[in-house]
Amino acid sequence: MSTKNIIRVVSIAIFMMFWLPWITVILSGCSGVSTLSYNGFELASSGVRYYDSQLIEPLYFLFVVPLSALLILLLSAIKTVMLRARLQIVTDFIGLLSLLLSYLGVQEFLQTLRERGSVEYKVEPSLWFTIFGFFAILIMAFLEKQRHPNDQAITESENND
User: Fold this and answer.
1) Tens-place pLDDT, residues 9-53
2) What distance in Å separates the CA atoms of residue 56 and residue 113, rounded to the nearest whole number?
3) Domains and their CATH numbers in the chain
4) From the centroid of its chain, how far is CA 20?
5) Contact assessment for residue 59 and residue 44, using Cβ atoms and an 8 Å cutoff
6) Among 127, 129, 145, 135, CA closest to 80
7) DSSP the chain
């Protein structure tokens, strides 16, 4: 399987992981323990809500994650190897940056609640796959770029993948 096809499969998987649970929030209080799971779409569109209280504001920039995955998939159709690899690297960094911004935006709030003892959270495997998938695409696109170090317009018909 060529690097391009692996990148395609991983980008489709990243897109699908956006709709699976990313975090599980465990709330303990007077009324017992409540467990809530949130996928990427729910975190981006409505944040984390518990009854009438908004625990985490919506993280709108998380919508960049599935868009980055789709754009990486579309970029795999570009015939020029160097251009494709460079654009995939840039798009991948944008997807990773949106995940990092989400983490930084939520981490301080969750740490405060955790210190009070009222909230715990667990990162689900689908979020880890999303993160590792972006890193895998980044590495594969970088390796593809390194195999063609000169800026000549090498197309796939000339490339022996």
Assistant:
1) 999 999 999 999 998 878 776 666 778 888 999 989 988 776 777
2) 11
3) 3-147 (1.20.140)
4) 12
5) yes
6) 145
7) --HHHHHHHHHHHHHHHTTSEEEEEEEEETTEEEEEEEEHHHHHHT-EEETTEEEE---GGGGHHHHHHHHHHHHTT-SBHHHHHHHHHHHHHHHHHHHHHHHHHHHHHHHHHHHHTSEEEEE-HHHHHHHHHHHHHHHHHHHHHHHS-S-S--BTTTS--
Place of tokens 């689900």: 124
Q: Rounded distance, CA 124 to CA 37, Å?
A: 9
In this prediction the pTM is: 0.82
CB of 92 within 8 A of CB of 68? yes
Token pair for residue 130? 């999303």
